[in-house]
Amino acid sequence: MLGMWSPLLLWGLVTPCQGLLEKVGTLARIDKDELGKAIQNSLVGGPILQNVLGTVTSVNQGLLGSGGLLGGGGLLSYGGVFGVVEELSGLKVEEVTLPKVSVKLLPGFGVQLNLHTKVGLHGSGPLGSVLQLAAEVNVSSRVALGVSARGTPILILKRCSTLLGHISLLTGLLPAPLFGVVEQTLFKVLPELLCPVVDSVLGVVNELLGAVLGLVPLGALGSVEFTLATLPLISNQYIELDVNPIVKSVAGDVIDFPKPRNPVKVPPKEDHTSQVTVPLFLFNTVFGLLQTSGALDLDITSELVPSNVPLTTTDLAALVPEALRKLPPGQQLLLSLRVKEAPTVTLQNHKATVSISATIHVLSYFPQGAHEALFQLNGVMTLNAQLAPSATKLHISLSLERLSVQLVSSSAHTFDASRLEEWLSSVVRLAYVPKLNVNLDVGIPLPKVLNVNFANAALAIIENAVVLTVPS
Q1: Which residues of 446-465 are buried (b: 16+ CB within 10 A; e: fewer)?
Q2: Cα–Cα distance between 117 and 135 in angstroms, integer?
Q3: What secondary structure letter does DSSP report for 49?
Q4: pTM of this prediction?
Q5: Mean pLDDT confidence for 421-429
Q6: Given Cys at both, which of 79, 94, 116, 117 links 73, Cβ 3.0 to 4.6 Å?
Q7: Would you call 448 helix, strand, or coil by DSSP?
């Protein structure tokens, strides 16, 4: 395994600079506590100990059982190393305590990983007496952080050793010479026995790290593929991944919406927290996809608004009578709203806003006949964006702040279009904004970072980005 991945370590690691960091992509900072939890959880919830060591509850099963490496004629059993010592027979490892995990990040290299555990040995002592021993063991390993062949961050075991601690005789009698034989044999055996645990743990954690990169669907709009943009960086507190989001259409074509000219300045991460930074680019891209797919266009009729906001010539005549010519009162209206340019998203001063420029055609509406154009407006909607994180997405909900309109053309007389703004605002607020929020349900996808749940993350809007922070 070491030889296979060694060339990839030439990517190297750089310690992140202190203070503000300039990034454009999605920035993920994994706290060392989060890495420690991932390793501990892999031991608790996974089959690692069962597959490699056996467990307390499954005595004589698995690798160390009666038919395993050390049992039934194995290294420590009758016929093995102790076979030459007639006073001992059948000694084998049957119990392994769940290891305690200790993680230390090594800037410029990777991780110092220590596993402290206790090993229980059972066998027969002199004169056939039952023999039970317990040994404390510390597994110390150096793990490098590199990049795999498919471009994912990966932890690679470079060195592993074991330190044998106190050995306790729990049951039976064991003369000092035989005790020394046991101790010397454990020194030889335990590295081969316990270092595979580290390799198996890293396999689980590498699957989680690999999940940072992948394809995330954007509903009917397309998908976002996360790739590693630069080398992984490591400090004494966190691992930093600069992730590049590649947006694709439903057909699989890459969508290249303009990125900000100025890079995002990300504030320093607090200790014992993990962090994901969502750039303005992703917000602009989602709204751009909505615009190009026609999801921002809407024909508004009286069926889409409450009865207290009727769309009739009677109500319009009260505001701009000169625009209606000789149309009879009570005639239904149709508002055809079309968005021809991608909306503009602004992230700054702890606030998120969306500006949508639209052309609004106002027509008389005949359900069973032709429509008659009355006038055309250019409108600019300014909407406040409320942001709420979930486990895997950053959700957006819009509310109308203001609407301004200008008259472009009229089939009758010109008029001051500002007189329509309050009426149109009510229509947009009740009919158009709810449709926008339904389409925005796809949210902004977040990269998966060691299964960190961002649902309760603290959210900060900085210039051109949103920062999500969760305690480790």
Answers
A1: bbbbbebebeebebebbebb
A2: 8
A3: I
A4: 0.81
A5: 95
A6: 79
A7: coil
CATH class of 32-210: alpha beta
User: What is the tens place of the pLDDT at every residue in 314-365?
Assistant: 888 888 888 777 778 888 899 999 999 999 999 998 999 999 999 999 998 8
CATH superfamily name and code, 257-471: Bactericidal permeability-increasing protein; domain 2 (3.15.20.10)
Burial 215-246 (b: 16+ CB within 10 A, else e): ebebeebbbbbbebbebbbbbebbbbbbbebb
Half-sphere exposure of 293 (CA within 13 A, CB side): 20
From the CA atom positions of the chain, what is the Rg in Å?
Answer: 33
Helical H segments across 257-398, by residue range: 280-292, 313-319
Nearest residue to 154 via CA among 110, 112, 114, 197: 110
DSSP 432: I
pLDDT > 80? residue 234: yes
Please check whether the two domains, 32-210 and 257-471, share a CATH topology: no
| Structure tokens belonging to residue 103 | 């993680």
Calpha distance 301→315 (Å, rounded)? 14
Displacement of CA 105 from its chain's centroid (Å): 21
What is the distance between the alpha carbons of residues 279 and 30, in angstroms, rounded to a whole number?
Answer: 18
Domain range list for the chain: 32-210, 257-471
CA distances from 4 to 11, 71, 149, 206, 426 (A): 14, 32, 10, 15, 64
Task: Show Cβ contacts of residue 6 under 8 Å, excluding neighbours closer than 6 positions.
Answer: none
Q: Across residues 413-435, what is the average pLDDT? A: 93
pLDDT at 3: 38
> How many secondary structure helices (H) and strands (E) does the chain include?
8, 22
Q: Which amino acid, one-letter code, is at 28?
A: A
Identify whether the C-beta of residue 239 lies closer than 8 Å to the C-beta of residue 218. Answer: no
437: left (phi over 0), alpha (psi -120 to 50) or beta: alpha
**Cβ atoms 194, 117 nearer than 8 A:** yes
Please report how the helices 176-210 and 32-45 are oriented relative to each other, as an axis angle in degrees rounded to 10. 110
